[in-house]
Design goal:
- Belongs to the binding-protein-dependent transport system permease family.
- It is a multi-pass membrane protein.
- This protein has 277 residues and is mostly helical.
- The chain folds into two domains: 3-59; 63-276, Orthogonal Bundle (MetI-like fold).
- The chain is 73% helix and 0% strand.
- The protein contains 14 helices and no strands.
- It is globular, with a radius of gyration of 23 Å.
- The protein starts with a helix and ends in a 5-residue tail after the last helix.
- The relative contact order is 0.14.
């Protein structure tokens, strides 16, 4: 490695460290503020280490009856989990059909589907809400779970992975009398585990952090999800930052745990789909 490469590598390392610092400072402030009394939460200059360490903010978040944080936590976890599982099922079926089955108009239908990705999602809000209202799903779990199950991105991601699976495996199974569904369920899905985990992680995080749609289709406090509930807490507590940051930390824990356990599959899953960065 010549001197120019060494200098370039060091500059890149310094730049990445600075960017990482900018990313981690807000997180450290959130955690620090959640462990402070309210009187210290808004003090200036910022005290990164609390003078008085307290867990009362977390206890208050769990114990208050007028703000059902645990109900919001359950709603977010239940909706995100069920939505993710159903999305994996439907998208993997569609991806299998587009990648392994042969039928007239397959490629035209697939690329027409890809074209819908250029439509901004916000344009679907009004007609989608009208459909949800007609079905009587407003303020119901169905309104939070079913919209968006057919993800074009998910179908594309899984299709790219399925294409890379050797056709000889499928041909050998057909010779043994296996049906298309058996091949999909017993051969394709087990081999597609990395891409399924990547899609599950993206889907769960997107659903867990979704704010706009749950705000539109839920009307009662018991049906709110965590992002909407945190916005309500700002008004409920007159922006008591310590309690709000405690609730924010709690809301981030499931996603962090999921990412820690699934991170080894992320690069592998995306790389095997053939998508270039």
């Amino acid at each position: 490695m010549n001197n120019e490469d060494k200098v370039s590598k060091r500059i890149s390392l310094v730049f990445l460290c600075v960017m990482a610092l900018f990313w981690i400072l807000p997180l450290l402030w959130v955690i620090s503020t959640s462990l402070k009394p309210e009187s210290q939460a808004i003090s200036w200059p910022i005290r990164w280490i609390p003078e008085t360490l307290t867990f009362e903010n977390y206890a208050d978040v769990f114990m208050r009856q007028d703000v059902p944080v645990m109900r919001w936590f359950f709603n977010s976890f239940f909706v995100a989990t069920v939505h993710t599982l159903l999305m994996l099922l439907f998208n993997s079926m569609s991806a299998y059909a587009f990648s392994r089955l042969r039928f007239r108009g397959r490629d035209v239908l697939f690329w027409s589907l890809m074209g819908t990705m250029m439509i901004p999602p916000v344009m679907n809000l009004v007609p989608l809400y009208g459909l949800i209202s007609t079905l009587g799903w407003v303020n119901n779990y169905a309104a939070l779970i079913f919209p968006g199950l057919a993800s074009v991105f998910g179908i594309f991601l899984l299709r790219q992975f399925f294409i890379g699976i050797p056709a000889e495996l499928e041909e050998a199974a057909r010779i043994d009398g296996a049906s298309a569904f058996y091949i999909y369920w017993k051969i394709i899905l087990p081999l597609a585990k990395p891409s399924l985990i990547v899609l599950a992680l993206f889907t769960f995080m997107a659903n867990w952090n979704d704010y706009l749609w749950p705000l539109i289709v839920t009307t009662s406090a018991d049906m709110r999800t965590l992002p909407v509930g945190l916005a309500i807490m700002q008004g409920q507590f007159n922006i008591q930052f310590a309690k709000l940051m405690a609730a924010t930390v709690l809301s981030a824990i499931p996603v962090i745990i999921l990412f820690v356990f699934a991170q080894k599959f992320i690069v592998k899953g995306i790389a095997l789909t053939g998508i270039k960065g």
